[in-house]
Design goal:
The chain has 3 domains: 105 residues, mini-chromosome maintenance (MCM) complex, domain 2 (Sandwich), CATH 2.60.320; 102 residues, no CATH class; 104 residues, no CATH class. Helix content is 0%, strand content 34%. It has no helices and 26 strands. The protein has a 5-stranded antiparallel beta sheet, with no helix packed on it. Strands 3-9-5-6 form a 4-stranded antiparallel beta sheet, with no helix packed on it.
Length: 351
């Protein structure tokens, strides 16, 4: 089957958050090898609601699947394509299982998840499990919400009209990072980060550009503890999916930092040892970067993938690498992608 689940450890003990929240019950990274047939990845400690898969060996799209839209419905972080852009796929991620997920044989030529002999990584999140459609009416717009309040993560599906509206996110605190994508029409991913993007600004997940500002209109309304919203400038009617995150002490951190241009000493404090870090420069163009402790079992963490690119994994990078520390992470160079002098960065870190 070729799957592999390993965790970054300290003194033989898996790094973890508080006893009240077991990180391994809420987020895991898993690697596996494609077999060109069908296979189940059954090494997780929970049933995932969001599975983000990337071929590490070749130039293939990122495949993002969630339990609200359903199995075999894929969107990609590296493009603006409509959901299932290239046809009605039936042989990609075929089910979300109690301890993982199952894969089809790629006979529909999607080639996102299971090319024979190729190595893959899958980042997996638990939200609120299977939910009924249109289960939340707290906002102006009825939405379908699957929320994991303890872990500060939710998946939200909704339909925008052509006017300002609010949508419930299902969390008990305002989301600090929102990744939003239209699914029934081609559109860029919009990313909102508290304290970084104003309501008239966004960051595109499928682009390398920094923070973009609309010259005259707002794109968002400020999230509250119950809802987030949009202004008519961002109200292209259609179906949307959003992935919402907020910081949770000892488990998850949405934050920002300023680069110092050095190879050591710029320690970013998260309050826990990360197993996953997503980084993006915001004051200038620069690729998004994903690092994790499964593709690198020890420091330096120098294998990374770019969410905005279909490129294969970059391995053993001597420039864009970081170290995972007991209470955060630290860039290993003054690379423009992670630590340029006086440059601004955002991150999502998970224990």
């Amino acid at each position: 089957m070729g799957f592999n689940k390993k965790f970054f450890t300290t003194g033989g003990i898996v790094a973890s958050a508080s006893a009240a929240l077991d990180p391994l019950q809420n987020f895991e990274t898993v690697t596996y090898t494609g077999n060109g047939s069908t296979q189940s990845i059954s090494s997780l400690d929970f049933q995932p609601d969001l599975v983000w898969i990337k071929n590490r060996d070749g130039i293939y799209f990122h495949g993002i699947f969630d339990s609200i839209r359903g199995a075999n419905k894929v969107i990609s972080s590296n493009n603006s394509d409509i959901e299932n852009q290239h046809g009605n796929w039936t042989q990609q991620l075929t089910s979300f299982d109690s301890n993982g997920f199952s894969l089809g044989d790629n006979s529909d030529s999607g080639n996102y998840v299971n090319v024979s002999g190729d190595d893959y990584v899958a980042w997996c999140w638990r939200a609120g499990g299977t939910v009924s459609a249109n289960n939340n009416t707290d906002g102006d717009i009825t939405s379908t919400v699957s929320a994991n309040q303890d872990a500060g993560f939710s998946i939200v599906k909704y339909t925008k009209s052509g006017t300002t509206g609010t949508i419930a996110h299902g969390l008990d605190s305002a989301p600090e990072m929102i990744l939003e994508k239209r699914t029934d029409g081609a559109a860029y991913w919009n990313v909102r980060v508290a304290g970084i993007t104003n309501n008239n600004q966004t960051i595109y997940l499928n682009q390398s550009s920094g923070v973009g500002t609309h010259p005259s209109l707002n794109l968002w309304t400020t999230p509250t503890d119950s809802v987030f919203g949009y202004n008519s400038a961002n109200a292209t009617a259609g179906d949307y999916i959003a992935y919402c995150f907020h910081s949770v002490d000892g488990y998850q951190k949405v934050g920002s930092y300023t680069g110092d241009g050095t190879s050591s000493g710029n320690s970013i404090v998260t309050g826990f040892r990360p197993r996953f870090v997503l980084i993006k420069r915001t004051d200038s163009a620069g690729d998004w970067r994903i690092f994790d402790s499964v593709r690198n079992l020890s420091n330096p963490i120098n294998n990374f993938l770019r969410p905005n690119e279909s490129a294969a994994e970059t391995t053993n990078s001597s420039t864009a690498s970081i170290d995972f520390l007991s209470n955060g992470f630290e860039p290993n160079s003054g690379s423009a992608s992670v630590n340029a002098l006086d440059a601004n960065y955002i991150y999502l870190a998970i224990a």
